[in-house]
């Protein structure tokens, strides 16, 4: 099988760099009157990002698969900000990134109910899953981490552009450097021996490429984009470790590595920096770690790869010939051709998935 776009670079942090004291977002910028949408914000990095935004005065929407957990998180944020001067609001919407129907339904609800979206944080993700597939037949890592967020972002772009200045932050990982390439002819690991480690790494490379290509396509429209490495963080992302690595791996992560890695609050700092700081607002399409620009894989600079991945992703999620960058004054017609589904066309503003 032909290998597409091999990676010849390394950008791994040293052990000392991973364990050094975490940098904090130092910006005191307020978000009064701003609306932010954060995916996967019921726990971990996403929840602390939401808490920070609410403290800055934003109205924050937690877009989560598990609505019950998200409501608990929202209640906790309300309690922590109760009585705080200038605190914003928080609400919950259902979003399952493993279902394109759910992505469309959530996007439609946001388009119907929101007048602006100033900040979109693509935070949700899966990590080191055994070989499983989304409801649309995509390998789980690429399906949730990249394709779900790709469609969600594209559907919201007209509203985000109309809200400019606006920012889009996508949570990636330094593990994107491990990926040997993007296998455009085998995104779903049907022709290769499956590796949860490399499947995750390729999905994180897709995040970096998506953010970079998005910045190029948004040039001059007042929307800036960022991909971020939050650091090695103690979250629920390692819940599949026993199945994907070895029995007891999760215990090792929770009880040994936990002493050397960031807390979710520390891990949220780079996302927050890119979303609010004046310094980051002067940049776009960059990769950040520890609240500053970081070193990327050489593949991150491959514009042809990024464009090819964009085109392939648009076909897989059924965007058809609809262009979110020129769709400000007309509702998008979305062609819904996905594995196992016949082609249909619907107006996203009136589409209700079965």
From TrEMBL:
Keywords: Oxidoreductase. Pfam families: adh_short (PF00106). PANTHER family: PHOSPHATIDYLINOSITOL-GLYCAN BIOSYNTHESIS CLASS F PROTEIN-RELATED, WW DOMAIN-CONTAINING OXIDOREDUCTASE-LIKE PROTEIN. This is Retinol dehydrogenase 12.
């Amino acid at each position: 099988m032909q290998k597409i776009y091999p990676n010849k670079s390394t950008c791994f942090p040293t052990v000392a760099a991973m364990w050094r004291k975490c940098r904090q977002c130092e910006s005191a910028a307020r978000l009064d009157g701003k609306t932010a949408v954060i995916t996967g914000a019921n726990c971990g990095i996403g929840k602390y990002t939401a808490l920070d935004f609410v403290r800055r005065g934003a109205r924050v929407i937690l877009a989560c698969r598990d609505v019950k957990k998200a409501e608990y998180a929202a209640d906790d944020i309300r309690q922590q900000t109760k009585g705080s001067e200038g605190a914003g609001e928080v609400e919950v919407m259902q979003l399952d990134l493993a279902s394109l129907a759910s992505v469309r339904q959530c996007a439609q609800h946001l388009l119907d109910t929101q007048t602006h979206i100033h900040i979109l944080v693509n935070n949700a993700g899966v990590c080191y899953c055994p070989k499983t597939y989304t409801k649309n037949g995509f390998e789980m890592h690429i399906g949730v981490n990249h394709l779900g967020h790709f469609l969600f972002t594209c559907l919201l772009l007209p509203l985000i552009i109309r809200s400019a200045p606006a920012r889009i932050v996508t949570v990636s990982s330094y593990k994107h450097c491990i990926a040997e390439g993007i296998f455009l002819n085998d995104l779903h690991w049907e022709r290769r021996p499956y590796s949860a480690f490399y499947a995750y790494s390729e999905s994180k490379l897709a995040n970096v490429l998506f953010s970079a290509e998005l910045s190029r396509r948004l040039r001059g429209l007042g929307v800036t984009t960022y991909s971020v490495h939050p650091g090695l963080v103690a979250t629920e992302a390692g819940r599949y470790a026993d199945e994907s690595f070895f029995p007891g791996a999760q215990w090792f992560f929770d009880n040994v590595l936990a002493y050397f890695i960031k807390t979710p609050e520390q891990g949220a700092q780079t996302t927050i920096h890119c979303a609010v700081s004046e310094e980051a607002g002067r940049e776009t399409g960059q990769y950040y770690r520890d609240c500053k620009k970081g070193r990327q894989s050489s593949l991150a600079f491959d514009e042809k790869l990024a464009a090819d991945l964009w085109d392939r992703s648009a076909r897989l999620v059924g965007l058809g010939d609809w262009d979110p960058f020129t769709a400000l004054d007309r509702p998008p017609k979305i062609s819904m051709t996905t594995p196992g589904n016949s082609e249909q066309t619907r107006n996203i503003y009136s589409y209700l998935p079965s």
